[in-house]
Amino acid sequence: MRLSAYERFVRDCRKSIARIARCTGGEHSIGDVSNELWLMALEVEDRYTIEFNFDNPEHRDLVLKFTYQKLVKYAETTVRYAKSMDCPWSESEANLYERLPSGNGVPDEFVRSEREQREAYKLSEQGMSLGNAWLLVLELNGNRMLTVARFLKLSRSQGYRRFQKVRILADCQRPLPLDPGGRGNEVVRPWRKFKCYRTPEQLVLPFETGFDF
């Protein structure tokens, strides 16, 4: 008898069932929605401790509403717009967040990994300098001076003094060019500007060769 009541329910509510199927964007057919209604009726019985009656209008509205929430609303927020990790990605889609399926949020380890990659890229773009070297050391040691001091075999006070010195140097220091352009020793060293001395040249009068007037 319950099966016949279910068949009447499907027949009477075919428009509502078709509407739910359309709202799923083609992921579920009318038959899929009808089967889900039967399973949802069993869940409603367990949740509300009632005997579900497919001929009861209130029970019909309840199971239709719950099925719509499950197949449409829930899927839109957690499943439908999630991108599969098996699909190919172009080079422009380099963001790690775009390669994750949607769910309860991006895991902390992925957020941390993406942030570290961005910071490492910024450091590499600054060129070779003493300031950049200290930034890399700080980054590798979690930006904690105590860990940096242990890493460099220094006391913490020495680490702070050297860090302050390097900050002043970094303001005046020129980055070392990666491509000297074949000039070799003619490349200006990465130190303060006033240390780039001009080579003195002795002026010689041409007494032996004579003056050209």
- Main β-sheet description: none
Tally of alpha and pi helices: 8
Helix content: 40-55%
Total beta strands: 0
Structural class call reads mainly alpha
Runs in which pLDDT lies below 50 for 5 or more consecutive residues are none
Termini separation comes to: 129 Å
> How confident is the prediction overall: mean pLDDT?
72
Principal-axis shape equals: elongated
Oligomer, anyone?
A: single chain
Descriptive notes:
This protein has 213 residues and is mostly helical. Among the domains are: 2-78, no CATH class; 126-176 and 188-193, no CATH class. The protein contains eight helices and no strands. Helix 2 packs across helix 3 (30-48).
Topology:
Blueprint: H1 2-12, H2 14-23, H3 30-48, H4 57-78, H5 108-124, H6 130-140, H7 145-152, H8 156-172
Helix pairs in contact: 2-3, 2-4, 3-4, 6-8, 7-8
